[in-house]
Amino acid sequence: MKKYILIVLVLLTVTSCKYEEYINDYDYTTVYFSFQTPIRTLIVDEYEAIKLGVAMGGKRENKVDEWAHFEITPELLAGTPYKILPSEVYTLENDHEIIIPKGEMQGDITVSFNMEQLTALDEPVTEYALPVTITSTSLDKIHETKNSTIIAIKYIANLDGTWYHKGITKGLNLNSDSTWVRTYTHSTLEKNHTWVLNSLTSTKVESNGIGYLEGSLQIDLNDDHSLFVTATDEENFISKSASLSNDKKEIYLSYSFQRDTLVYESTDTLIFADRNIVFETW
Question: What is the DSSP annotation of 64-75?
Fold first, then answer.
């Protein structure tokens, strides 16, 4: 019986020690960047800023404003595939300090971009990055291996993403004069097939389909929000009409093209589904 009591007491002591470790602050506090090699995606005319943020560890509750000072450090790019992002392309909300507000475990500032200048510099997957190093802090320490981050920058066109695809294509065989109709429309939106529109430039995207067939369309969004549509791989392509509804986030297309002796006339509606932006590192 005494043996069992002793075991219980030992277990209670160990559990109590572990619990104390859980509820008490660590011996020192630390500031750090959560990710060292992130890739951040900008969206032309929609999402033209990112957050530059730091996190803290070592205490369970933040009862005061803490701060971390930082600086842009181009030397971090040595040995990487990136060039320094030109200073005229972006603006820092604060050029040297990030505050971690009372009650929070993270803090950040906004980095805004001049998209006209950025898109003129490079293609959507750019060669530019923003290298940042924490130089001092109100906390006890700066994390030794997470004291810097190199943020690679890319952008996508406003039409980039996954779109539900529905419509109708009429076909004509020039040799036999035979015709047919293919309808690809489902009343339940999510049951329609999808197209993916991938960025070619800051304004132009390319589809992974044409009508109900394999192929591609190039859709360019003009400054006045009109659309210019081409299909460089198709014979006798004619764009009959193309428009965009910003309110509904829908694209309406009417076009024809020829493959050998087959002529297709398609009327398509694309309904926005998803941006397909995921967290990336380089």
Answer: S-EEEEEEE-GG
Which is nearest to 73 in space by CA: 85, 81, 61?
85
- Please tell me the distance from the alpha carbon of residue 124 to that of residue 202, in angstroms, as a whole number: 7
* pLDDT tens profile 42-70: 999 999 999 999 999 999 999 999 999 99
Is the dihedral angle over the CA atoms 156, 161, 167, 172 positive or is it negative? Answer: positive
Partnered with residue 193 across adjacent β-strands are 165
- Parallel, antiparallel or unpaired: strands 218-221 and 227-230: antiparallel
pLDDT in tens, 108-124: 999 999 999 999 999 99
Tens digit of each residue's pLDDT (9 = 90 or more) over 75-110: 999 999 999 999 999 999 999 999 999 999 999 999
Query: Whose CA is closest to 117, among 83, 91, 94, 95?
Result: 91
In whole angstroms, what is the distance from residue 229 CA to residue 206 CA? 10
- At residue 199, the 3 state secondary structure works out as strand
Task: Quick: pLDDT tens for 252-263.
Answer: 999 999 999 999
End-to-end CA distance of the chain: 61
CB atoms within 10 A of CB 68: 25
